Input
Amino acid sequence: MILIVAEHAGGKLAKSTLEMVTAARQSGREGPVTVLVLGQGVADVANEAARYADQVLVADLPQLANYNAEVWAAATAQIAQEGEASTVIIGGSRSGREYAPRVAVKLDAPYLEDVIQLSASGNALQAQRYTYLARVTETVEAEAPVIVVTVKPGSFAPAAPAAAAGEQYDVELDLPAPRVEVTGKSVEKSSRVALTEADVIVTGGRGVGSPENFATYVEGLADRIGAGVGATRAVVDAGWRPYAEQVGQTGKTVQPKAYIALGVSGAVQHLSGMGKSKYIVAINKDAEAPIFKVADYGIVGDVNQIVPALIEAARK
Amino acid sequence: MKILTLVRQVPDAEARVKITGQNVDLEGATLVIDGMDEYGVEEALRLREGGGGVEEIVALAVGPKRVEDALRTALAMGVDRAIHVETDQKLDPIALSRVVAQVAQAEGAGLILVGGQEADWDSQALGAATAERLGWPQLTWTNELQLEGDTLTGRHDVDDGNESFRASLPAVVTTQQGLNEPRYPTLPNIMKAKKKELRKDDLGQYGAQPAVRVVNSEIQTRARLNKMIDGKDPQAAAEQLLDLLRNEAKVIA
Output
C-alpha cells in the first residue's frame, strides 16, 4: 500500500492531504492509496479522508491528542510495517519534516524530502526537489522495498473525491510516552488568509520605513485586494512583524499567483522562499535592488507614494 | 557533559551556483560554515559560558578535504577540538546521521547541536534522523535554549506558532536564526585554533552508504517579464500596474 499520513487541524482535513493523495496516485508506486488519521476525536476527519482514499486507517487515541515527533514516527512506522507499505507519504510541513526522518530510520528506508514531483521507474522512485536555497532543481532516485517521502505543500493539485468512499478501519498502536514536555504554547493567529494558501501576497521589507507604514501600506493594500501579508526577515528581526509572516529560507515558502514585494531588496534567502511565485511585482526606490531581476512588473519609486495611489486605484 | 556540534560547509548565499554535467559545481565558489550550523557552534559556547556544566565542545564535519576550513572556523570561535571524517563521497542526510550517531556515542556526547535546514541540501532531516538512531528526543527550530543540570528548557517554532518546552538530556537540538548572534573569530583565537586537535577519521569505519542517488541537477530560472513602469508619476504608475495585474496577469479581480 501507499501510506499517507493525514494532516488535519480543527477537525478538518488540510488541503495538503489531498495534494498527497494526488502525489500517491501519480507516483506509479504499488498498492491501494491508504490514509492514516492520527489524533483524538478525528471521526469527521476520517470520514472526509474516506471520500478520497481507497482505505482509511484511524487511530483515535488520547495519546495522539497532541502532535509529538517520537509518537508520530512510532505510529507511522508501525502501520507501514504491518501494512507492508511500498511508500510512506508525509506532509512537507514543519512537523512532517520533523518526524519523517525518524520514520525513515525506523524502516531503514531511503528518504526523499520536500519533493515537488514523483514518478516510479521500475522498482525505483524518482523525485524532484529544490536545493541550494531553491536555486537548483535536483532529480533524486531511490530503490528499496519501502521509501519515505515528504511532499512540498502546493506542488500537487488537490485530489478530487473518488467515486466510492474508502473503507475505514480502526488500528491499534503501541506508542511511546512523549519525552518532550510542552510547557506553553503561543498560536500565531491572523484574520487574513493563510500565507501558504493565499493566491496573492503583499510583503513588506525594511524599505517600507516603519511599523506604522507597514500597517498603512502593506496591510492596507493586502486588505484592499484580499491578499495575505508577508514580511522579510529584516522586518521580523526588527520586531515590526510576527515571525509567522516571515517569508524565506527560515520562514515560510510560498508560491502564490502574485507576490507583491514592497520595499523588499531581494536577498537570496528571501528569494528562496518566494521565487517560484507565478508573477512577482516589485516596488522599491533602489533601482539596483536584486528583486527587480526576478520581477515581472517593477516600479522604481517610493512605497509611500506609489502604494497609496495603488490602494486608491484598486478602489475603482 | 560533552556537546557535539555539527558543521557543514556550503556555498555563500550570495555565491553563484553553477552546474557542470549533472551536478552542482562548487569550483571557485566561496564556501562558508552553514549559517544554521554556526548558530549551533555559538549556542554550545554560550551554554558553557552560562555555567551549564559543559566539559567539552567537539565539532564534527563529514566531507572532502576543504571542509577543514569550516572546522578551523569553529575551532577559532572557541570549540575545543574537531573531528573530520574525510570523504569525497556524497552522503544523504539519513546516511550521514549514521556517522553522527556513532561519533556521538563514541564521544559520550549528551547534546548534539545541528542546523535546522542546510543551505545546500535544503534539508531538515539530519537532526531528526540522528536523534532516532540514538533513541534520543529532538527539539527542532529552536530559538531559545537554557541548560540547567541535565534539563533543557527553551522555545521553538511549530506548525502554527511556537512552544515552550522542557526535556532531559541526552537530546538533539536543531538551531536557527534568532537563537543567538554568532561571534567572529578574533585573530588571537584563529592563531590558537591552529594548535587545537583536528582528528581525521576514515568514512569506511562507519559503514554509511547513501541510499539516495542524485540523477540530475538543473538551474531553472523562470523567464520573467521584467516590465518596468516609470514611477515618477505615482498615480499613473499605480493605474498601469493595476491594469497589468488585472488584464495581463489576471491575478486580481
